[in-house]
Amino acid sequence: MDLGLKGNTYAVGGASGGLGRAIAECLIGEGATVIGIARSRDTLADMATTHGDLFISHPADLTDGTAVRKLGDELIERSVAGCVFNSGGPPTGTIAALEMTDWDAAYASTLRWKIQLTKALLPMLREQRAGSLLYVESVSIKQPIDNLVLSNAFRAAVAGFVKTLTREEGAAGIRANILAPGYHATDRITTVLAKAAELQGIPEEQVKREFLAQVPLGTLGQPEDLAKMAAFLLSPTAQYITGQTISVDGGMTRFLTG
Predict the structure, then answer these.
(1) Collapsing DSSP states into helix, strand and coil, what is residue 125?
(2) How many CA atoms lie within 13 A of 33 on its CB side?
(3) Which of 4, 20, 130, 153 could form an SS bridge with 14, CB 3.0 to 4.6 Å?
């Protein structure tokens, strides 16, 4: 199926690794140009060498409001057709263990920059009468995950923001959706497993078996699995899909509607 992405430009956060890199490379494979955003300047430069004109490097720290403003200016200048809001998740931890400074940092890394960049892009997208915004969050947006209180709280806030956004901007042709990944084979799951093993005092391999026991398909997802869904949601093929939170989790979410 031709998704109709060829010739369009999309911004992808966290493009240097994990889910973000998989999304960026999937879009490039469909003929789209990708503006890759990440802190790792060297990795982005390597990707630009590999993909040529279809990859534009934009090193940035998304917790820095000034950097987000400059990013918004570039995305407007390039008339992006859509944006993938993706970055590393906040630290693991319980309510009792985390300090207020941890909450402040998690707000900056998980919620604030997404609101700022969205607001920056809206005037351009309204003028274009089209645009697809995709927020990569977590299954914790549907059911809380133990030892991930920061993710549980702030990703729920993203859901409220995105749902409101679709109500306010749908008439302008602007779509917004959320992807809720489960356990995928990325550096993030390695961190989560290590912390769970530390707290429980058991080997990581045992923790991994317990995590996978929650997944009906019995395996970790591959980043490419989620990337294909992301490409679809960004594309004109999904023009009547907006305001949705779609799980890509091997069936682990027990919420009745997925």
Answers:
(1) helix
(2) 15
(3) 20
**112-129 per-position pLDDT tens digit:** 999 999 999 999 999 999
**Tokens representing residue 10 in the block:** 């999309």
C-alpha–C-alpha distance, residues 156 and 232, integer Å: 23
Rounded CA-CA distance 204/192 in Å is 10
Q: Is-contact 35 23, C-beta < 8 A? A: no
Q: How many CB atoms lie within 10 A of CB 187?
A: 10
**Tens digit of each residue's pLDDT (9 = 90 or more) over 145-202:** 889 999 999 999 999 999 999 999 999 999 999 999 998 988 878 887 787 888 788 8
Domains of the chain, each with CATH number or no CATH: 9-184+223-248 (3.40.50.720)
H-assigned helices in the chain:
18-29, 41-51, 65-77, 100-107, 113-128, 149-169, 187-200, 204-212, 223-234
Distance between CA atoms of 175 and 244, rounded to whole angstroms? 10
CA angle 250, 252, 156 (to 5 degrees): 110
Is 144 strand, coil or helix? coil
Identify the three-state secondary structure at position 35.
strand
The whole-angstrom separation of Cα 241 and Cα 132 is 10
